[in-house]
Design brief:
Length: about 120
Amino acid sequence: MRTSLKERIISSLFVGVFLFITLCVIHKLFIGKADWLSYSLVWSIAWTIGHFVSKTITTMEESIWKILGYDLIIIVVAFILLAFVLGVLCDMASWGETVSNIMVSFGMSMIVSNKWIRD
C-alpha cells in the first residue's frame, strides 16, 4: 500500500530528527567527538533522504531482488555524482572521507527502510 507524499515526508523528517538527537547524545556524551554536531547532521540528513527515496520507490508487487537492484543502482549513481561534485567541482582535499560518510548512511537507510524488511 502506497502512502501519500505528505506521510512519506513527515515520516522521513521524524526519522531524521530522532536520529539527529540520538547521534548528538551518543557522540557528545559517550564518544566525546570534537566534530559531533557536523557528523550528526550529515548522518541524519543523508538517512532522511535515503528513507524518503526508499519509501518512494517501493511497491507491493516488486520482488526483493528487484528492490535491492533499484537501491544499489540509486546508491551507486548518488556516490558517483557526490564524488564528482565534492572531488572535482569543489576540489575538496578530503572528498573521499566526506563521500563515504554520506553514502554509508544514505545506503544503509535505503536498504533498511525498504517495505519488504518492514513487513
